[in-house]
Amino acid sequence: MPQRGRPRGFDADEALERALEVFWRQGYEGASMSDLTAAMGINKPSLYAAFGSKEELFRKAVTRYAEQDMEYARHAFAQPTAYEVVATLLRENVLAVTRPDRPAGCLSIQGGTACSSENAAVAGFLASSRLAGELALADRFTRAVAEGDLPADADPAALARFVMSVTEGQAIHAAAGVAREDLRQTAEIALAGFAAVSGARPPAHVDPGQGVS
């Protein structure tokens, strides 16, 4: 028997996916309850019954986004060298923020970079999520230093901050309509800068200028 307040045949995953796209396109504050319920095909009582408040729905949408749309980051972190981690992250980020089947940009940026004081918790939640990614990348670079893949004097925190600043900036540019090929160029420049500053070098079998097709 369906839960009270939910329409027969209600698919929570599909509804959450639709809400995710609304938040991505319009941001947390720009997405009204009317926008959300229309996209999800349910009424307000059904939304509250299934997902709780608007903020709870947004947090669940961000979690879903991290699990499916940020999978490329997990793939990048699994690469064997710091250079390959950054090359994969920068290049696949370009693809992720310019997907034709998704809104341009990144939900964690567009969702609520700036919010009114009453929604400060939402902006804080997104900032914490982005910082967690940066800290994870710094940990990966720390491991690279310990393994001798990066020089002992490399600064993992500063390097991670640089890479994340680039990916976040790429998302903003993508949302503004910058073309994929232009973002690819930026990614390659950033990769060259990372290599020059960090001392990271591409594996012998990797062409430093190759991109992800």
Structure description:
It is built from 10 helices and no strands. It has 213 residues and is mainly α. The longest helix is centred in the middle third of the chain and has 27 residues, at 120-146. The N and C termini lie far apart (47 Å).
What would a concise description of this structure say?
With 213 residues, the chain is mainly α. It is 67% helix and 0% strand.
What is the percent of helical residues? Answer: 55-70%
Count of DSSP helices?
A: 10
What is the distance, rounded to the nearest whole angstrom, between the alpha carbons of the first and last residues?
Answer: 47 Å
Structural class, by secondary structure, is mainly alpha
* Helix-strand string: HHHHHHHHHH
Proportion of residues in extended strands:
under 5%
Largest sheet: none
Shape category = elongated
What's the Cα radius of gyration? Answer: 19 Å
Q: pLDDT under 50 segments (min length 5)? A: none
Strand tally is 0
Please tell me the overall pLDDT.
89
What's the SSE blueprint?
Layout: H1 12-30, H2 33-40, H3 44-51, H4 54-68, H5 71-77, H6 82-96, H7 107-110, H8 120-146, H9 156-175, H10 180-198
Helix pairs in contact: 1-2, 1-4, 5-6, 6-9, 6-10, 8-9, 9-10
Please name the defining characteristics of this protein.
single chain, 213 residues, mainly alpha, 10 helices, 67% helix, elongated
